[in-house]
Design goal:
Layout lengths: L3 H48 L14 E4 L1 H8 L20 E5 L9 E4 L14 E3 L8 E4 L2 E6 L2
Parallel strand pairs: 4-6
Antiparallel strand pairs: 1-2, 2-3, 3-5, 5-6
Length: 155
């Protein structure tokens, strides 16, 4: 009975640590979705302005009409300073680099995209089935392409 207060304090500390860890994960996913929504909206507007239209049904996959780009190149594409990390972010909520895809000059099928590899930092591949995934599965790629989310948390 003498150790009951110590065990109670230890149990409380453990619960608070776990709760804080879960909240941090939720915040990382929320921050990632926000980064993709904000950056994607700017990319799409720039694509529409430069190409007249930006294929909303453009398949997210490496192609002759989309090329991988850095965050700095994406910033230049939308017309902000290459160093402005607030407009087009470099990192997702877990601290991994976001991957950007921009139209290849001269290609008729313009499209833009960006994606996060999720909390594991590993992309699942280059093609995706459109739709939501479980909010609890933070290892899923979050993908935005040409005007909307292709893969997002929300199930």
């Amino acid at each position: 009975m003498k150790n009951e207060p110590a065990r109670s304090i230890l149990a409380t500390a453990l619960c608070l640590t776990l709760a804080g860890s879960l909240m941090a994960q939720d915040n990382a996913l929320r921050d990632t979705v926000t980064a993709l929504r904000e950056g994607g909206t700017q990319l799409f507007a720039a694509c529409e302005e430069k190409h007249g239209q930006c294929g909303a049904n453009f398949a997210f996959a490496p192609s002759d009409c989309m090329a991988k780009a850095t965050a700095e190149e994406a910033r230049v594409y939308v017309g902000v300073a290459a160093s402005d990390d607030t407009a087009i972010r470099t990192l997702d909520g877990w601290g991994f680099e976001l991957e950007y895809w921009l139209p290849v000059p001269g290609c008729k099928s313009a499209g833009v995209g960006l994606r996060s590899a999720g909390d594991d930092g590993l992309f699942a591949g280059d093609s995706y089935e459109a739709g939501p995934f479980s909010d609890d599965d933070e290892g899923q790629d979050v993908v935005w392409q040409s005007g909307s989310f292709l893969r997002w948390p929300g199930q």
